[in-house]
Amino acid sequence: MMRAIGLMSGTSLDGVDVALIETDGEAVHVVRGHNNYLEPLGPTGYRGYSEDEKGLLRAATKDAEGVVAPGDRPGRLPEAEAFVTEAHAQAVEQFLAENGLSAGEIDVIGFHGQTVIHRPDQRITIQVGDGQALADRLRIPVVSDMRRADIEAGGQGAPLVPVFHQALAAASGFEGAFGILNIGGVANATLIDSKGGVIAFDTGPGNSLIDEWMQEREGKNLDDGGRTAARGRADEPLLAWLLTHPFFFRRPPKSLDRNWFSHKLAGQLSTEDGAATLTAFTARAVARALDHAPEIPARWIVAGGGARNGELVRLLNYHLRAEITMADAIGWSSAFLEAQAFAHLAVRSLKGLPITFPSTTGVREPMTGGVLARPRDSSGS
């Protein structure tokens, strides 16, 4: 087993998640309690973004719309890359100090970076963040840029987390058909059938449209608990139109850029009705995943920030008509699952194990990925 730290800054643009796990790249080290409850895999940490920092990332994401080649860094992207690297370094340094750990006790860091654009059909995906600079500062090997190899080979480059989902499911002893839903800025599903077959894909918007709506209307970062949406009424004609987007008719594997959908479509509605409409859109987009399921899941495990949105969870219960369990209720980490996943992926990358698969990204054959940066000495060698 190796000790790995995973770092995740998602499309919700709220901050850096840090998680430490022990893994050999195949299985994760777990302690199983009563009813297959897993004890925490390891300590976690968080470094939030200030409003000014979020503003920089939003501006960089907007500037990234001008990218026409993978190496392009227009507008504020260079500034954002330097900031993302610095913020992640601070997050790890704080995490190590709080947990009494030294750099020498960590084998590798999985560094996702900040996605600013994802256009797999054009073979472009950019996660800003300098893996080599991070390795040099922290004195720990860093694996970053984990989507690029898959994209260059014709895959979607996303989602990457399903291989970790499989490891967690095996540790929990799950049987039968079930789904794992992660609701970050974008929502993605991993569907595992009763024979162990896996497909995975982005289902559509997650929290991003709701968060942007609340920011614009009330200056809030999110609809806390879904309470604003619960007071509103969804606009059914608008919902029906939104669900005609070509993305929902594409067969998986498939992934999307958060900019493909806009919260401004709800602009003529009240704050409450707009929140209700966008929340219902997220839930119904997830339900459309059942159109592609080889077996209808009898159970769903829900993780990510959306798991804390009570109105969204209520709608998922209604539309999925299956047993829905919050990740935290079975010992999985709802808030830090993706950070844990990137720790697991970093170890797989070090060992040359595949991190993407035909049934998860559409790549022709299982592929490893990631760029390894080892700490250089002060002379740069």
Automatic annotation (TrEMBL):
N-terminal signal peptide: none
Annotated ATP binding sites: G10, T11, S12, L13, D14, G15, V16, D17
Organism this protein belongs to: Methylobacterium cerastii
Function: Catalyzes the specific phosphorylation of 1,6-anhydro-N-acetylmuramic acid (anhMurNAc) with the simultaneous cleavage of the 1,6-anhydro ring, generating MurNAc-6-P. Is required for the utilization of anhMurNAc either imported from the medium or derived from its own cell wall murein, and thus plays a role in cell wall recycling.
Keywords, in A-Z order: ATP-binding, Carbohydrate metabolism, Kinase, Nucleotide-binding, Transferase
Family: Belongs to the anhydro-N-acetylmuramic acid kinase family.
Reactions catalysed, as given in the entry: 1,6-anhydro-N-acetyl-beta-muramate + ATP + H2O = N-acetyl-D-muramate 6-phosphate + ADP + H(+)
Gene assigned in the entry: anmK
Protein name, entry field: Anhydro-N-acetylmuramic acid kinase
Involved pathway(s): Cell wall biogenesis; peptidoglycan recycling; Amino-sugar metabolism; 1,6-anhydro-N-acetylmuramate degradation
SUPFAM superfamilies: Actin-like ATPase domain
Record bears the keyword Nucleotide-binding: yes
Transferase is among the record's keywords: yes
InterPro entries: Anhydro_N_Ac-Mur_kinase, ATPase_NBD
Example of a GO MF term: kinase activity
Gene3D superfamilies reported for this sequence: 3.30.420.40
